[in-house]
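Throughout our pipeline, every protein is held as a single compact record rather than as scattered files. The record that follows is passed on verbatim for readers who wish to inspect the format.
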Amino acid sequence: MANIIANLNKAFDSRIRLGIMSVLIVNDTVDFNTLKELLELTDGNLASHIKALENLGYIQTIKQFISRKPNTRYKITDQGRTSFQDHLDALSNLIG
């Protein structure tokens, strides 16, 4: 019997990372505060999960200034989009 959970991506086990990727897959970019509010997280909690996804190459950080104020935005990478879609497909196969 084939292992039915073998294709699930361990990086998306966390509901927070799943939430981050879900938001980013449907938006071009999202800023830190918007992610924090949508997912109802603290700064530190969100930052640690973003760093983990960034280290895997799944998201990209875009730093800029808007009216002299720093603004940090995040964007899903091609690798992140593919990996997340593969994970969603594996979940679909698991429950289907």
Summary: The first strand starts at residue 30 and ends at 31. The chain has a mean pLDDT of 93. The beta strands are 30-31, 59-66, 69-76. The CA atoms of residues 3 and 94 lie 10 Å apart.
